[in-house]
Write a structure and sequence with these properties.
The complex is a heterodimer of chains A (416) and B (173). Chain A is α/β, with parallel strands linked by helices. Chain A folds into 3 domains: 7-154, Aconitase, domain 3; 158-263, Aconitase, Domain 2, CATH 3.40.1060; 270-415, Aconitase, domain 3, CATH 3.30.499.10. Chain A is built from 15 helices and 18 strands. Chain A has helices at residues 5-11, 38-48, 73-89, 101-107, 139-148, 173-184, 199-202, 206-214, 230-240, 283-286, 298-301, 304-314, 332-340, 343-350, 398-407, and strands spanning 23-27, 30-34, 60-63, 92-94, 116-119, 133-136, 150-154, 158-164, 193-197, 223-225, 258-263, 270-272, 280-282, 293-297, 324-328, 353-354, 376-378, 393-395. In chain A, the strands form 5 sheets. Chain A has a 5-stranded parallel sheet, covered by helices on one side. In chain A, helix 2 (38-48) crosses helix 5 (139-148), helix 6 (173-184) runs parallel beside helix 8 and helix 12 (304-314) packs across helix 14 (343-350). Chain A starts with a helix and ends in a 9-residue tail after the last helix. The mean pLDDT of chain A is 95. Helices cover 29% and strands 17% of the residues of chain B. Chain B starts with a strand and ends with a helix. Chain B is α/β, with parallel strands linked by helices and 173 residues long. Chain B has a single domain (5-171), classed as Aconitase, domain 4 (Alpha-Beta Barrel), CATH 3.20.19.10. Chain B is built from 8 helices and 8 strands. Classes of the chains: A alpha/beta (416), B alpha/beta (173). Chain A binds chain B through residues 16, 22-25, 44, 47-49, 52, 138, 140-141, 143-144, 147-148, 152, 154, 191, and chain B through 78, 80, 101, 104-106, 108-109, 155-158, 161, 167-172. The structure holds iron/sulfur cluster. Iron/sulfur cluster binds next to helix 11 of chain A.
């Protein structure tokens, strides 16, 4: 029988029989730890393998993004513990100035189509955007991978999500993503790999693919793979300097556990209301709710394209009184390009506060938390109570965030 | 090397009506009030401490015992305590209709054998004073060696880790 995308990637990295439910040994191309749990990886490694070397320092990396630069002593200590270990072992650290680890791996040409990548980041499955298998794991697992270059993995069943039709701006990839999350719910893809196909998936640019892939976790999925695209391949080639790359595609007779079809023709901008990502509505239905804080960033919508779009909408205008607009590009590269092209100046003039590249409001309050009753719009991927402070959080697209920043209330970008 | 054929008393983790309890979450297995404990030996006495009717399980359990559990055993949080407390009691295997995904990963990493047995012959198992479980074949036998049922065998990977003692011990080789 034919193989799905995940089965192809696993088969290329394992000698074991590949079938859903089977537990296999899996070779890992890229092994990472971030500042969350990285110090525990180091501690586990030192305790379990005293004096030992990592399997391959060239394939092992630290990425700091949760709290970067550290604004608590605990994080500073953890980052330093990783740096000391990295120095001993000859491991490269993408330090607090680099940005979100998964995006850095993409930009640096480390997470390539068909590769296997693990780390202590539950959204490492972002890498499905370029056909790489990324997976977050615990600190014991990652310590073992650092030492041996492999780990075990249970082959997941695959489901297919077919996105028919097309939609028009100001509906964007984030709205499409929220529509899929709303349709599948938090458990709709539980424990499965997802292959997203159809005309609306094919039409996505790389930034949009990253947005959709980044929310696989919110559907319970192991990972979501996007179809091959010339742009994704060109990006991976340019980033890695390699021209021997192949994008994994499923066999025609691959077996899918379930197929969900969705027609997104005429899709309108979406928003997910508290308390969880699957609580999805049309933005138009929630218009008028006052907001105080708007965050643009995260591994879901912190790309250059996302932030430029916000700047384009705000150009020559001002953020509404009583609203704080916080912007944090995903990476230093994105930040630099926005700076040099003048988009950060546009944001400054509009009244935004622009922060350095990292996980923004998502992880440890790098650009601030909310107080009780402080309503927040975020372009991120999670809005569970308490995750970003005491206030309620809505998830939306960069376009909706910008439109709402101008009015101080939830506003559909259709009004622009 | 740890044995791959284990013998002990079976425990059916069931309610008062004798039905296997489904969806026992990690908070029922090991209450979050005791998460600060890091010494596995100390964790033993809190196993099932929050599961109605089973609070005194640690007093009754003996090394070598085998647990038979319902659907989705170990659902919920990622706490390792919910695995380690059973290891500390000397439980040698858990046979279940299904397991929570994170629980499964934690159990394999700690070398606690989990065997899948969707069609659990509850009445038959209840009458047995002792069972022998072959982790490699999944074969479950009664006290006189009679065949009772066959669970899904442990995977080769899980057996590798079990034999070594834990994932990290395997990596230390
Ligand atoms: S932005 Fe949020 S979800 Fe993404 S990697 Fe950072 S902490 Fe995780």
């Amino acid at each position: 029988m034919g193989q799905t995308v995940i089965e192809k990637i696993l088969a290329a990295h394992s000698r074991d029989e590949i079938a859903p439910g089977k537990i296999i040994w899996l070779g890992i191309d890229v092994r990472t730890a971030r500042d969350f749990a990285g110090a525990s990886v180091v501690k586990n490694f030192r305790r379990a393998f005293p004096g030992a070397k990592v399997d391959d320092p060239k394939k092992t990396f630290f990425t700091f993004d949760c709290n970067a630069p550290a604004n608590t002593i605990a994080y500073a200590q953890n980052q330093q513990a990783c740096r000391v270990f990295a120095r001993e072992q000859g491991i490269r650290v993408y330090d607090v100035d680099w940005g979100i680890g998964s995006h850095v791996l993409l930009e640096e040409g480390l997470a390539l189509p068909g590769a296997t990548v693990v780390g202590t980041d539950s959204h490492l499955n972002v890498l499905g955007a370029v056909g790489a298998f990324g997976q977050g794991m615990g600190d014991v697992d990652i310590a073992y991978v650092f030492r041996t270059g492999r780990t075990w993995f249970e082959v997941p069943p695959t489901m297919k999500v077919v996105l028919h039709g097309r939609y028009e701006f100001p509906t964007t990839a984030k709205d499409l993503t929220l529509a899929v999350v709303g349709r599948l719910g938090a458990r709709g893809a539980l424990g499965r790999a997802v292959e997203v196909t159809g005309s609306a998936a094919d039409a996505l640019d790389l930034a949009g693919r990253i947005t959709l892939a980044s929310m696989a976790t919110e559907m319970g999925a192991i990972i979501a793979f996007l179809p091959p695209s010339d742009e994704a391949m060109e990006f991976a080639r340019a980033a890695s300097g390699r021209d021997d790359l192949a994008y994994p595609v499923p066999d025609p007779d691959a077996a899918y556990e379930e197929t969900v079809e969705l027609d997104v023709t005429g899709l309108r901008p979406k928003i997910s209301a508290p308390p969880n990502p699957e609580n999805v509505h049309d933005v138009a239905d929630l218009e008028g709710e006052p907001v105080q804080t708007i965050v643009v960033g995260s591994c879901t919508n912190g790309r250059y394209e996302d932030i430029r779009l916000v700047a384009e909408i705000l150009k020559g205008k001002r953020v509404a009184p009583g609203v704080v607009l916080k912007v944090s590009p995903a990476t230093r590269r994105a930040w630099g390009r926005l700076l040099k092209e003048g988009w950060l100046e546009v944001l400054y003039d509009a009244g935004a506060v622009v922060s350095h590249p990292a996980c923004a409001g998502c992880a440890e309050g790098q650009i601030g938390m909310t107080g009780e009753g402080e309503v927040q719009l975020s372009t991120g991927n999670r809005n569970f109570p308490g995750k970003q402070g005491k206030g309620p959080t809505y998830l939306c697209s960069p376009a909706t965030a910008a439109a709402s920043a101008l009015t101080g209330t939830i506003t559909s970008p259709e009004r622009l | 090397m740890r044995p791959t054929v284990v013998t002990g008393r079976p425990w059916l983790i069931a309610d008062e009506a004798g039905k296997l309890i489904d969806d026992i979450d990690t908070d029922q297995i090991y209450h979050n009030a005791h998460l600060a404990i890091t010494d596995p030996k100390e964790m033993a006495r809190y196993a099932f401490g929050n599961l109605k009717g089973w609070e005194d399980f640690p007093k009754k359990a003996r090394p070598g015992d085998v647990l038979f559990v319902g659907e989705n055993f170990g659902a919920g949080s990622s706490r390792q305590h919910a695995v380690d407390c059973f290891l500390a009691l000397g439980i040698v295997a858990i046979v279940g209709r299904s397991f929570g995904a994170i629980y499964r990963r934690n159990a394999i990493n700690s070398g606690l054998p989990l065997l899948l047995l969707p069609d659990m012959p509850v009445a038959r198992l209840r009458d047995l004073p002792q069972v022998t479980v072959n982790l490699e074949t999944g074969e479950i036998q009664g006290p006189d060696g009679e065949k009772v049922v066959r669970a899904e065998p442990m995977s080769r990977v899980a057996l590798d880790i079990y034999r070594a003692g834990s994932l990290l011990k395997l990596g230390a080789r």
